[in-house]
Amino acid sequence: xxxxxxxxEARRTTSVRRKVAAYVALTKPRVIELLLVVTAPTMVLAAxxxxxxxxxxxxxxxxxxxxxxxxxxxxxxDRDIDRVMKRTKGRPxxxxxxxxxxxxxxxxxxxxxxxxxxxxxxxxxxALLSLGAILLYVVxxxxxxxxxxxxxxxxxxxxGCMPVLIGWAAVTESLSxxxxxxxxxxxxxxxPHYWPLSMKYKDDYAAAGVPMLAVVRGRAQVGLxxxxxxxxxxxxxxxxxxxxxxxxxxTSVAIVSGAWFVGECHRxxxxxIRGEDxxxxxxxxxxxxxxxxxxxxVGIDPLLPF
Length: 306
Description:
Elements: H1 3-26, H2 29-47, H3 53-77, H4 79-82, H5 92-95, H6 100-121, H7 124-145, H8 152-156, H9 158-172, H10 177-200, H11 202-208, H12 213-216, H13 219-244, H14 248-273, H15 280-300
Helix pairs in contact: 2-3, 2-9, 2-15, 3-6, 3-7, 3-9, 6-7, 7-9, 9-10, 10-13, 10-15, 13-14, 14-15
């Protein structure tokens, strides 16, 4: 007689967990992780040492909410595309775990909360930059660029560069040349990071009618563009040395990891022009390793005496 309520409670708990998991998936957690990887080291560089732990935590929470809001808006806007693409078939608006209205309300609420949080616990400049990041990703990239041009990732990637400005502003309540160099590094890094992924899922994007570079150009052309942007990324990373007074650790990491990253991009291009099987995901994952190493060095270098 007592088993039935227990079963109902278990089902209700499972349902709540699935709903929470769906909301989390809506925020694109992997993207958030990458954005936070660049924020904390930037704050160390801005402080020229260890900033307040609470300030770092508050900035990361606000940044995560901001990025999560942008991701949720993107899932709502791209729900028709996501239903066509195999890569995105597990997203909550495709599976039906969330309704369109639930997703939209969540996106608005999370975005408003992120701006309010940053305004209260960091400063007005960080909050306004967070608002700008959401608008850039939702309006400039998702609504305007993504379905219209093969350069969508290049200019749409501006939104992904904003966390370094937000992190710097949270510490200094101002901006200078150094955070803009960090901004430039991520801006130039985005195409060689994302275009290999678009090569992997070329048929998906073609079926969805999204003009990614891999859809409208051949593999060799994509490979060449990846190389050019990779070289530009490394050049920008070296520019930070004189601008921010970086030391031996950062300089070494920037040169060695940059050489490795460029080498991987050249390998992709070489295979593409020879008509051989390419492994674009190797460059995709390698780009994440490269950026993580670079920003790890950004965060450690100011703490060293050399």
